[in-house]
Design goal:
This protein is an alpha/beta fold. The chain has a single domain, classed as ATP synthase, F1 complex, gamma subunit (Pyruvate Kinase, Chain: A, domain 1), CATH 3.40.1380. About 65% of the residues lie in helices and about 10% in strands. The chain has 6 helices and 4 strands, in the order ααβαβααββα. Strands 2-1-3-4 form a 4-stranded mixed sheet. A hairpin with a 5-residue loop joins strand 3 and strand 4. Helix 1 packs antiparallel against helix 6 and helix 5 crosses helix 6. The longest helix is centred in the C-terminal third of the chain and has 74 residues. It is elongated.
Length: about 270
């Protein structure tokens, strides 16, 4: 019985250490949520502004001659996969990789340490992915697309809906779609729409990519906070159950000792 109480004390101490760790990680995630949300909202505004300009340009008949609109008929899809730098974020990374598995024949460009570990070299940190990194990548992608090295460009990212809910999805960026574009509203472009569109596409892709990365990072932080909250609650419940079991074992040991003393005194 003494061995049982000792083992229970050791286990309680171990779970208590885990509880302190999850609380600390939850606090760190909470402290990062506001900054990540602010960066996400700013990138959303910029991405929306750039997208509206490109939508206006693509609505022009002249712009349909652009290689970014006509696209390529042969080759593979190229997909950017945005995952986290760390684990312990619930199903965040697993959901990203599950969706990527549906496009096994594609060429993957990973962003984030976990994505690089799975798909090979890429951009190591999603948290520190900069506008400069995005510009470098978008210029390379545009050059390769114009030269016919791939058919479509997609991004697997995680949409931030709330602290409780994040949704993994894929967005196709190239070729540019003309199906749902509004008609030109009379805006005059100099020197002409086609030239401006071809010049604007790298900046458009960069804006979209930065938006996806920052929104994914905000989703990662929120998912980690919720995972740590859940783990903390589970650890607390386990400690309470172990304390109850420990008290029962201790009471049983005391009862046994009393019984042995009484039995010994009666002989």
């Amino acid at each position: 019985m003494g061995a049982d109480t000792k083992a229970l004390r050791t286990r309680i101490k171990s779970v208590d250490s885990t509880l302190h760790l999850t609380k600390a990680m939850g606090l760190v995630a909470s402290s990062k949520i506001r900054g990540a949300s602010d960066a996400m909202n700013k990138s959303r505004q910029y991405s929306s502004a750039v997208s509206s300009v490109v939508d206006l340009l693509v609505s022009s008949r002249e712009c349909r001659k652009s290689p970014y609109v006509k696209g390529n008929s042969e080759g593979k899809d190229r997909i950017i996969v945005i995952a986290g730098d760390r684990g312990l974020a619930g199903g965040y990374n697993a959901n990203v990789f599950r969706l990527a598995k549906e496009f096994e024949g594609a060429e993957f460009i990973p962003i984030g340490k976990r994505a690089c570990e799975r798909f090979g070299s890429g951009f190591i940190s999603s948290e520190k992915f900069s506008v400069k990194d995005g510009a470098q990548l978008s210029n390379e992608l545009c050059r390769d697309f114009v030269h016919g090295h791939f058919v479509r460009l997609g991004v697997i990212w995680t949409k931030y809906i709330s602290v409780l809910t994040q949704e993994t999805q894929i967005s196709w960026i190239l070729p540019l779609s003309v199906e749902t574009k509004s008609a030109n509203s009379g805006t005059i472009f100099e020197p002409d729409e086609l030239t401006i569109l071809n010049s604007a596409v790298p900046e458009y892709i960069n804006g979209k990519l930065i938006g996806f990365v920052r929104e994914s990072y905000a989703s990662e932080v929120a998912a980690r906070r919720m995972a740590m909250d859940s783990a903390g609650k589970n650890a607390q419940a386990m400690i309470e159950d172990l304390h109850l079991e420990y008290n029962r074992a201790r009471q049983g040991a005391i009862t046994q000792e009393i019984t042995e003393i009484v039995a010994g005194s009666g002989t």
